[in-house]
Amino acid sequence: MRDVLSRRNFIRKTATAGAVGLGAAALLSACGKKEGGDTKAAAGCNDVSGLNAADKGMRTSNAYVDKAADPKKACDLCQLYKAPAAGAACGGCTVIKGPIAPKGTCNLWAAKSA
Questions:
Q1: Average pLDDT by consecutive 10-residue portion of the chain (114 residues)?
Q2: Which of 23, 42, 75, 79 could form a disulfide with 66 if both were Cys (CB 3.0 to 4.6 A apart)?
Q3: What's the pLDDT score for residue 3?
Q4: What's the start-to-end Cα distance of the chain, in Å?
Q5: Are 27 and 49 found together in one domain?
Q6: Bridge partners, 111 (sequence order)
Q7: In this structure, what DSSP letter does residue 39 have?
Q8: DSSP readout, 46-106?
Q9: Domain range spanning residue 85?
Q10: Residues 22 and 59 reside in one and the same domain
Q11: Which residues contact 68 (CB under 8 A, 6 or more apart)?
């Protein structure tokens, strides 16, 4: 016998798929949000798509992370950090290429000289 989809089953399956889609979207939009954190800067500073493999490896080998475990060793307090341009969330680094989160850190961190 041929399997026929009734109008009722079609509406039920469509509504279920829509609810699952909305739930997934809500869950994904909540990912990465932290209370009191600057998630906008961190989220935008993860885009390394324009870097070559060597530059990505440099970030990895120097253990760059977007959020420093020790706030006293954040990138914006490092002498190698380059402040972001007006209106930008991410800065740069004189050694590590790509976008750098102001509250990130790496193994190359060095205190700014007074």
A1: 74 78 68 49 74 92 93 94 91 93 94 84
A2: 42
A3: 66
A4: 83
A5: no
A6: 78
A7: H
A8: T--TTS-HHHHHHHHHTT-BSS-SSGGG-GGGBTTEEPPPTT-S-BEESSS-S-B-TT-B-
A9: 35-114
A10: no
A11: 74, 75, 103, 104, 105
Q: Are residues 62 and 84 in the same domain?
A: yes
Number of domains in the chain: 2
H or E element in which residue 1 lies? none
Both structure tokens of 25: 């979207």
Two structure tokens written together for 26: 């809500």
Same domain (yes/no): 102, 46: yes
How confident is the model at residue 36, as a pLDDT? 45
Helix (H) or strand (E) holding 81: strand 81-82
Q: What is the pLDDT of residue 35?
A: 47
For residue 94, the Cα-to-chain-centroid distance in whole angstroms is 21
State residue 32's pLDDT score.
53
Helix (H, G, I), strand (E, B) or coil at 59: helix
Supply the pLDDT for residue 12.
83
